[in-house]
Amino acid sequence: MKLTKTVLIAKTMTLADLPLNTLARILSTQLPPDLTQRLAALGLHVERDIEVIRRGFLGGPLQLRVASTDFMLRREDARQILVDILPQADSNLIAVAV
Description:
By secondary structure, this protein is an alpha+beta fold. The protein is built from 3 helices and 8 strands. The protein has one domain: Ferrous iron transport protein A (FeoA) (SH3 type barrels, Roll), CATH 2.30.30.90.
């Protein structure tokens, strides 16, 4: 009998933990006001959909996509952004056999 391990992925997580190519909605941020303002100019704000396209090597920055804008964000800043996986993307991520 082969044993499998099931890994559950939470629906709400930080942006740094979001799996690649998974659409999520921004719930809140705990970033400094100056960075919040710069990111808002790029389209990153509460209630906006976001996706992690690529992760930098050895803890490097994340490449993010908001609407048609791609940009990089440090992981330590991404840990301050809370996101919720969108329902249509949720069905593929509930459980993964390892």
